[in-house]
Structures are given as C-alpha cells and as structure tokens.
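User: Can you fold this complex?
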Amino acid sequence: MIDAHIHADCRPYEDFERMAVAGIESAITLAHDPMRMSTSAVVIDHFYRILENDFSRAENNGLTLKAALGLHPRSICPDYEVVLQKLPEFLDREDVVALGEVGLETASEIEKKVFKTQLSMADKMGMKVVVHTPRQNKREITIKTLSIINETVDPTLVVVDHVDPSIIDLMADFDGMLGITVQPQKMTPLEAVQLLEEKFSEYGPERFMLDSDMSSSPSDPLSVPKTVHKLKLSGWDNKKINMLSYKNAADFYSF
Ligand SMILES: [Zn+2]
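Assistant: Here's the predicted assembly.
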C-alpha cells in the first residue's frame, strides 16, 4: 500500500513501524508544519528536516518516503520570495516527487499569488502538484482553487486532496487526480467506502488515491489499511482496491 499524503515530521518514530506492519510500503510526506514560519530560513530548514531526518526515521522502520515540497498557504513567511527562488533546486532532487502541499486556506491575495506562482513553476517543470482544500469554507474556497488550477497549470499534473462529499461534484470539470483523506474529524473508513461506491466509476477508477493526512491534528496512521479492510468487507475486488491503495499513486508519482 501507499499512503499518498502524510506529514511525517509531526509523527512519532513508532507510527512508521505500525504502518509498515500493516502493509504500507511507501508514503508521500508533504511540507507544512503548523508552526510559525517567521522567515524563509525556517521553511528551508523544515524542508531539510523532511529530507534528512524523516526519511531515515521511516526507512529504519521499513517504510520508504518520497517528499513533496512547497509553500503551504499557512506557511507564507514575510520573505516567501526567497523560498520560491530556492524551490526549483529542491524539486530537482530525485527523492522529491511533487510540489506541495500548496493551495488556498482563506483565499487572500497573497495566498493566491503564492499559489499561482507555484502552479506555474510546476507547469514549466512538468512537476506533479498536491493541492490542499481547507476545512473552513471548503466549498467556496475549492471553487476558487479549481478556477486558478484550470487557468494556470496542466490539470493532469495535479491531485486535489481532501475531496469529500461536500465538494466532489465540483470535480466534474477537473481532469486531475482526486485524493480521499481518511482522517478522524474528516472522514471515517466507512464514509470513504460509501463515497467511493457512489463516485468511483463515475469519475474514473484511475483518478482516486487514498491517504491519511496524518499530522499534528487528530490522525490515524492506519487509515489506508483500515479503509482497504472495509473495502474488502464490502466485496470490492482486489484489482480495484489495488488501484486505490497503490497503483494510482505509484503511476502518478512514477514510483
Ligand atoms: Zn496535509
């Protein structure tokens, strides 16, 4: 299995062993720690923490990490331009598979500017992008997010994440990938199964990937295996389960 969206830097060492024991082979760990990013140096050090410390913490437990790096809307430091200048160098690394997570939280002017700049960067570099959708005003902000994506970047490079029943209908006009986040307070494994049963065929089975978004918020490192278990109990065949929990993410990120 692949957990397609985690924040390894916010999690204890023991979580990686639990994930590996439950059958997760790889995970994408994304930039953004909800700490104060008072200067670009803090953001860059956060990137290095992911690439140096977290990769080895996971590797020691048999879990392979790949990274997505970028400026999250809640991490925009006053000298954010320094981060944007250095970002392409990070994106060129072999262990960095995407730009992310990026997006809009409140859709302020500065958030839109930083989001657009990063989407253009990804488009130019042919880099995959992980786009966040917020908990607050989710539908309204997602509409704005999708319209910026559609005018700035090749949408097939993009995964829009944390898609839930409140926004899935908006994805009808979007050609990229859809991340389904199974996390306490967001969606239970059973709710994810219900959503997938309704939308899997309609939107295309090759477009969905599962993730836990495990972070400093209430999280379950075993979200993906628990959802796979519920899918099996609901009678889903192995091929479809494999697409959701492994193949689609592996293909998208060229594992
Ligand atoms: Zn996240």
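Helices lie at 13-21, 40-59, 80-91, 109-125, 138-152, 189-203, 223-233, 238-252. The first strand starts at residue 2 and ends at 6.
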